[in-house]
Amino acid sequence: MATPKQRGTAKERELVRILEAEGFLVFRSAMSGGLYDLIAMNDRELRLIQAKRRKERRRRAEPRFLAELKAAMPRSRSVKVLKELWTWIERDAWHVTRLEHDDAAS
User: What CATH number has the domain spanning 4-99?
Assistant: First the structure.
């Protein structure tokens, strides 16, 4: 039987395959407790991704966690930087929450 960490790692690797299929170069941070699990980039976007796994859907992602992600948002005028929380809901699908600064470059 897989441990929760092993199941989480399997989901992160699944995300790597999804993003690579979309043309992104993806780096996975194997460090436990880091702010980002994956960094994905192509010539237009830099995506900083935190992946979560849940047994059931919650109405909203954890507000304190989302605030922490948003506060750490890097700014760039040459590349669109996106912060995303990808949540895997058991027996459902991936749900994506995107965070952007109000004053992000257009």
Answer: 3.40.1350.10
